[in-house]
TrEMBL record:
It comes from the Bacteria. CDD domains: WHTH_GntR. The keyword Translocase does not apply. Keywords: DNA-binding, Transcription, Transcription regulation. This is GntR family transcriptional regulator. Residues 9-77 form the HTH gntR-type domain. The keyword Transcription regulation applies. GO terms for molecular function: DNA binding; DNA-binding transcription factor activity. GO terms for biological process: negative regulation of DNA-templated transcription. The lineage of its organism: Bacteria, Bacillati, Bacillota, Clostridia, Eubacteriales. PANTHER family: MANNOSYL-D-GLYCERATE TRANSPORT/METABOLISM SYSTEM REPRESSOR MNGR-RELATED, MANNOSYL-D-GLYCERATE TRANSPORT_METABOLISM SYSTEM REPRESSOR MNGR-RELATED.
Length: 237
């Protein structure tokens, strides 16, 4: 295969576009090793300088990861999380081309802390429904989440939340739409139990996102705590 040196688009840009297309169509899947620079030179009839400029551009665009002494690899596609608004995990997965999944770890009642009660404006002695799930993308674990709900949402006890969208389930039952949230973000490190669920080593960096989630009227509806594998996510401001 050769590139066209008679058009205005530089050869390195043509090569970068060609390799990007091959990545997006799955010819080079995530985690796979790209051909060597010499092999790319021969395959596309271009110089090593052209190949390196194309690989540099794709590395800056986060399509590739270059590992000294090992080669060039297709980067894992990162989940993009916005800091404004509310986007359910299932919808986020679908937009990224992944099949969303969920496995319920625990669902039960617990006494709220003083902070929980104040944030959700709970009545005296009102309990919280706690739903803890492992979130999957194409069958692979990427996030642990704990959601806390007031009594209005106790119907979730009777719902099968495995491989289901929590927000879609709630909307079908109540008509409630979650539209905004305030978030607290920090980097934490996986403890033993978290590492077992997420399939990472103990101490692996996790992105902790604690949210107070509101509906379109501005009422605080539930609390969320998500622990995301940090190197699989990218935040957008």
């Amino acid at each position: 295969m050769t590139l066209d040196n008679t058009i205005s688009t530089p050869l390195f840009q043509q090569l970068a576009n060609t390799l990007r297309s091959a990545i997006e169509t799955g010819e080079y899947p995530a985690g796979s090793r790209l051909p060597t620079e010499n092999e790319l030179c021969q395959k596309y009839s271009v110089s090593r300088v052209t190949v390196r400029k194309a690989l540099d551009e794709l590395s800056r665009s986060e399509f590739l990861v270059r590992k000294p002494g090992k080669g060039t690899f297709v980067a894992e596609k990162k989940f993009q999380r916005g800091l404004s608004g509310v986007l359910g995990y299932s919808e986020m997965c679908r937009r990224m081309g992944y099949e969303p999944g969920a496995r319920t770890i625990r669902i039960g009642l617990e006494e709220p802390s003083d902070e929980d009660a104040a944030q959700l404006h709970l009545a005296k002695e009102e309990q919280l429904l706690v739903v803890e799930r492992l979130r999957l993308a194409d069958g692979n674990p990427v996030m642990l989440e704990v959601n806390k709900f007031p009594e209005k949402f106790f119907f979730l006890f009777n719902e099968d939340l495995n491989n289901a969208s929590l927000y879609e389930t709630i909307h079908k039952k109540t008509g409630i739409v979650f539209t905004r949230s305030s978030k607290l973000l920090e980097i934490v490190f996986a403890n033993y139990q978290e590492s077992r669920y997420l399939g990472v080593s103990k101490g692996h960096p996790l992105l902790s996102i604690k949210s107070i989630v509101q509906d379109d009227s501005g009422e605080n509806r539930h609390l969320s705590h998500q622990l995301c594998i940090a190197d699989k996510f990218k935040l957008m401001v």
